[in-house]
Amino acid sequence: MATARGTWGYRDRFGDDFGRTYFRRFGPGVVSSVGLGTYLGDPTETVDGEYERALVAGLEGGCNVVDTASNYRCGRSERVVGQALERADVDRSTVVVATKGGFLPFDGARPDDPAGYLRERFVDDGPVDPADLAAGQHCIAPEFVDTMVDRSLDRLGVETVDCYYVHDPETQLRIRSREGVYDQLEATFERLERRVDDGDIGGYGVATWEAFRRPPDHDSHLSLPTVIERARRAAETVGREECGFVAIQLPFSAVMADAFTTPAHEFEGERRSALSVAHALDVDVFTSASLAQGDLVRGLPAGVDAELGGDTPAQRAINFARSAPGVTCALVGTSDRDHVAENVAAGTFDPLGARAFDAVFE
User: What's the mean pLDDT in 196-218?
Assistant: First the structure.
């Protein structure tokens, strides 16, 4: 697993190559503020090879955060991350590895009968109760998430996942009330607290697409303060003095800035944004879709672009995401080794200060 000594040593190895605040505190260690994502791409051997080369280049070039999920590319992304960790000239203790569980995954390829495959593998004789299944493919019940932790450890080939996310819990709002989702999250958090105790995961969190950036009247809204309170209750139930809930993941970019601009959460008597609440509760934030899934490579809004450092639109877009107050790391997915080098080089430019970032929205 990633350690304080390992990640600080990684920072000492690469820190002089980057601008100020490129490396940021995460737990007792540090992480690069640009991370490697593995979501996009076809589930093929060709893309596997491209991803492996790109991940190795990133790990050896100053990026020590890798993010994946059990369902990405039909499970191939986790395997490729494991292969890259083995191949790269970096020690495992220097790299923060995050993955997620929530969507029922395929195994290497999309089957001819997806619904039948999932039913046979996970419902008929597996860990999923049909009553817990949303949209035919989503489950966050404790037994299923517990099973996915084991599967991820096996696919990644690691002894410990540094951060394990419950994936898109707002999907469960299609079949149950918000209170019901909070109850199920708390039960699953109890199971994850035990996995922290066992050393299988370093910490856990929630990765969302809509839940934390939408206002309370939105169908996909979940309260971040409530989710964190449920995690703390789970830790107390298990008997752990320190809660293992360490991070959230949500989309954030120059064209999707709701996590900063939308006061979506009731907290301490006022409405505050997700980034503000996470900072106040000492929870790290990893942003996804920092390039808006490639759209921002063609350019940013003019008023934003002019304020940011970077030689390319992609670099300036990444620097926007990692400039937001409270953001620990901006994740960027690519299977192209040259693009990885370009993306990581965004860190050679200084991010905006808090006052300058605020001014972009005035």
Answer: 97
Is 142 strand, coil or helix?
helix
The CATH fold assigned to 4-360 is TIM Barrel (3.20.20)
Give the ranges where the chain is alpha helix by DSSP (H). 4-14, 45-59, 76-87, 114-118, 142-156, 178-198, 224-238, 258-261, 274-280, 302-305, 313-323, 337-344, 354-360
In tens, the pLDDT along 303-326 reads 888 889 999 999 999 999 999 999
Own/partner contacts of 112-121, CB < 8 Å, gap of 24 or more, are none
Question: Angle at the Cα of 122 (from 74 to 246), degrees rounded to 5?
Answer: 70
Residues 6+ apart with CB under 8 A from 8: 29, 30
Q: Find, among 346, 354, 349, the residue nearest to 35 by Cα.
A: 346
* Predicted local confidence at residue 354, as pLDDT: 80
Mean pLDDT confidence for 19-48? 96
Per-residue buried b or exposed e for 206-243, using 16+ beta carbons within 10 Å of the residue's own CB:
bbbbbbbbbeeeeebbbbbbbbbbbbbebbeebebeeb
**Integer angstrom CA distances of residue 328 from 183, 248, 271, 287:** 28, 10, 22, 8
Q: Tell me the pLDDT of the chain averaged across its residues.
A: 96
pLDDT the model gives residue 326: 95
Task: Report the 10 Å Cβ neighbour count for 286.
Answer: 28
Confidence at 356, pLDDT banded by 50, 70, 90: confident
- Amino acid 293: pLDDT: 77
Q: Is 328 helix (H, G, I), strand (E, B) or coil?
A: strand
| Cα 26 off chain centre by | 13
Quote the pLDDT of residue 297: 85
> Of 305 and 285, which is predicted with more confidence?
285
The pair of structure tokens assigned to 158 is 């690691």
Nearest CA to 23 out of 39, 7, 38, 36 is that of: 7
CB 169 within 8 A of CB 140: yes
Helix (H) / strand (E) element for 19: namely: none
> What gap in Å lies between CA 110 and CA 71, rounded to an integer?
11
